[in-house]
Amino acid sequence: MTDIIIAADRLTKRYGPATVVDHISFDVSRGEIFGLLGPNGAGKTTTILMLLGLSEIDEGQARVLGHDPARDPLTVKRHVGYLPDSVGFYDNLTAADNLHYTARLIGIPAPERDPRIKAALARVGLSEVGDKKVGAYSRGMRQRLGLAEIVMKDAKIAILDEPTNGLDPQASLELLDLIRSLKSSGVTVLLSSHLLDRVQSVCDRVALFQNGKIVLLGTIGELGRQVLGGGFAVEVECSGGHALSKQLATVPGVRSVAESADGVFRLLCDRDVRSDAAAAVVKAGGQLTRLELERASLEQIYTSYFKDRPEQQVPHAA
Amino acid sequence: MQRKGTPLRGVGIVTLKELSDHLSSARMRVLEWLVVLTALAALYGAIQVVRDTTAEDPFLFLRLFTKSQEPLPSFVGFLSFLVPLMAIGLGFDAINGEHNRRTLSRILSQPIYRDALLFGKFLAALATLAISLIALWLLVIGLGLLLLGVPPGGEEMLRALVFLVVTIAYAGVWLSLAMLFSILFRSAATAALTTLGLWLFLTAIWPALASGAIRLLMPGADQATMLIGGQMLARLSPATLYGETVLALLDPTTRALGPVYLSQLQGAIMGAPLPLGESVLIAWPQIVGLIAATILLFVAGYVVFQRQEVRA
């Protein structure tokens, strides 16, 4: 049994004649990391703001923890932590003072504030610089401080808007680790990004946005099957001629075989077929030189999806 | 659609935070020095004049506020410049500052309504202004006591107190105007410049323009209508309202704030002071006007802010 913690039902947002979010429906279950993916301007942030009750919902309904964010935003915001795109803090205050202010706004009782702030700063690795003014913080440190705020809030849901945007690779890896650790402590994470490869590594399920609509929704494996025709790709490099291609196609689970270069075959398949493929090559008298498994990457899914639909403008995926 | 929860949740917290920000800011240092210098300069001028001329004036203390010695303006003259400047200085980046620091959406994602943020910011800035003005007021009265060596009468103190309250209300008008522009304009510099421009226009240009404007609006009207109409137009400026209120409060012999027909003066003892209640009554429409302007401008800002998108 999964319990739905965020439910969006035909959410719609219009600005004048433009519909920026167009009848979007999705569910997020407790404890999962759900990714909202898509190019900038596809409606991800607007969707998030509607879920938080920070933007009016023009049509449709949202439920967050069973509450309607349009009617009862205070309860929703009490239990949801939000890390906006390139989050800002008061530069003239220290990190701890910034969190103190938020803690008072949240309504954390006075005696609990200090220990919770300390614990939150320690959790994101900012203990030593907690008494420094935020003005001196790097972008990565600010993002981490934003996560500390969510930790301190003891939020049941963390909504992160482009959390790795503008971070160097090291900092964004650290941040993704922190996001994973949020999940392991029982927090449901909703995360938006246009950086596909980064997101792939953390998300359980993703929704692909395009022009205000969700065009694909599911686990990465499901999307791979749906779009690429297989969730896995196995690359086989061997000598033995083109005839091997037919042999490989008969392996159970293989959906298609393509010879991408001379003696290099690319199998799209439903499961990991490496051992069967190796056996097939050997049985056909070929010499196996390389065997490699690739999980379908989001980027492949993404580009392939939009390549097959030339009527839709191909977005710029990172 | 009815929303659950009180919009006032968090007002106190926002107010305290903003107040502590204001009081520890560099702007406050500047304001403090302005306060001290204003008090000294105004008193220096006033004391000279008061000592020389009005040894038997029953309202000696009030003269401290109004008398001046060229080229320095009187204390009231100083205030009419200083108060709008202080208010605009505290309000021009109230909301767009949060936008530009990208703190707005983070703060609003906490369990408070936008009302709390706006209201808290207004209250904090008004409290800061009140603190500065009370300090200034006490400074002038204290120095006046020392320098004149004459204790003020009870009525004088009451008049001075009402004057202080009106001055704070006047500060409120410019504060809500500055905050309105801080909501309308994303750039703090644009907001500051627009507010200052409007202040300059309303204070220096509009009162002079009003009499000309009425001539265009009502050609061929008689002199009295013209005069009254021109005054009405001039009163659209909060600076005019404040000036008239101060005149009625600090000069007890003021009997009317506008043209008076000769017939209305029958039986009046010219130059005799009015009791405080009567003076307040004369300026009552002006006082109400100042408070109403504050509320109207705040409401305008409130409505715009509620409809604004929070995303940066």
Describe this structure in words.
The complex is a heterodimer of chains A (318) and B (312). Chain A is of the alpha/beta class and 318 residues long. Chain A contains 11 helices and 13 strands. In chain A, the strands form 3 sheets. In chain A, strands 5-6-7-3-8-9 form a 6-stranded mixed sheet, with helices on both faces. Chain A has a 4-stranded antiparallel sheet with strand order 11-12-10-13. In chain A, a hairpin with a 2-residue loop joins β1 (4-15) and β2 (18-29). In chain A, α4 (110-123) packs across α5 (139-153). Chain B is globular. In chain B, α2 (26-53) packs across α3 and α8 (154-184) packs across α9. In chain B, 73% of the residues lie in helices and 0% in strands. By secondary structure, chain B is mainly alpha-helical. Chains A and B meet through α1, α2, β5 and α3 of A and α1 and α6 of B.
Structure at a glance:
Chain A is of the alpha/beta class and 318 residues long. Chain A is 35% helix and 29% strand. The C terminus of chain A is likely disordered.
Low-confidence stretches of chain B: none
What is the radius of gyration of chain A? 23 Å
Strand content of chain B: under 5%
Determine the fraction of residues in helical runs of chain B and give it as a percent range: over 70%
Question: Can you tell me the overall shape of chain A?
Answer: elongated
The helix/strand series of chain B, from N terminus to C terminus, equals HHHHHHHHHHHH
The overall strand count of chain B is 0
The total count of helices of chain A amounts to: 11
Strand order of the largest sheet of chain A: 5-6-7-3-8-9
Mean pLDDT of chain B: 88
CA distance, first residue to last residue of chain B: 26 Å
Span between termini of chain A: 36 Å
The largest sheet of chain A, given as strand count, sense and whether it forms a barrel, is:
6 strands, mixed
Number of strands of chain A: 13
Average pLDDT of chain A works out at 87
Shape descriptor of chain B reads globular
Question: Would you tell me the structural class of the helices and strands of chain B?
Answer: mainly alpha
Helix coverage percent of residues of chain A?
25-40%
In angstroms, what is the radius of gyration of chain B? 22 Å
Q: Which chains have the largest interface?
A: A-B, 35 and 28 residues
Count of helical regions of chain B: 12
